[in-house]
Write a structure and sequence with these properties.
Blueprint (H helix, E strand, L loop, with lengths): L1 H15 L6 E4 L9 E4 L10 H20 L3 E2 L5 E19 L8 H6 L4 E19 L4 E11 L5 H13 L7
Parallel strand pairs: 2-3, 2-4
Antiparallel strand pairs: 1-6, 4-5, 5-6
Length: 175
């Protein structure tokens, strides 16, 4: 029940936050004193492009380096299983502009010229990067996430390694 309320809190914090920041939750008492880990890659690797495979390997390396620096060992028989999810979608912003010196009391502007107000729409990509760490019994030990928004010249491979570093650094294996 505590885990369920923590996940609901994570969603609420994610929705209401204005600036992108890392949100991490621990499942108290699960996974303490673990000494080994293994990064589990997505199963659909056969369907990925070469660029996506390179990005997965880079993210995996960042996670492995960070956890090794925290005193954990990479193992084939681990106590902790680390996975990540990247969810990206296209969103749009619409803004309205009044191109005249609009005076609402001016008869001409109000009744005769309805085309002075223009709207523009911009599309961009935004998403969330989530890291799950589970124990041998598939119980959630820790989950960290960060929302992101891509600017026009940025690509996902340019941004995700830095975001991954920001998220995984928040995990404390001794928590």
């Amino acid at each position: 029940m505590k885990l369920k309320s923590s996940l609901i809190l994570l969603v609420v914090i994610g929705i209401t936050s204005c600036s992108p920041r890392v949100v991490g939750i621990y499942n108290e008492g699960v996974g303490r004193n673990a000494k080994s880990f293994m990064v589990v890659l997505p199963e659909e690797e056969k369907e990925l492009s070469e660029e996506q495979v390179r990005l997965d390997k880079k993210i995996q390396q960042i996670i492995e380096n960070s956890l090794t620096n925290k005193g954990l060992k990479n193992s084939l028989l681990p106590e902790l299983y680390v996975s990540y999810i990247i969810s990206v979608h296209t969103a749009s912003d619409t803004q309205g502009y009044d191109y005249t010196n609009y005076n609402r009391y001016n008869y001409y502007n109000y009744y005769n010229n309805p085309y002075t107000f223009r709207t523009t729409s911009h599309t961009h990509k935004e998403g969330v990067f989530i890291i799950d760490i589970r124990n041998e019994d598939n119980k959630l030990v820790w989950q960290g996430s960060r929302e992101f928004r891509l600017r026009s010249k940025e690509g996902i491979p340019d941004v995700l390694p830095e975001i991954c570093s920001e998220v995984i650094v928040e995990f404390d294996p001794k928590h």
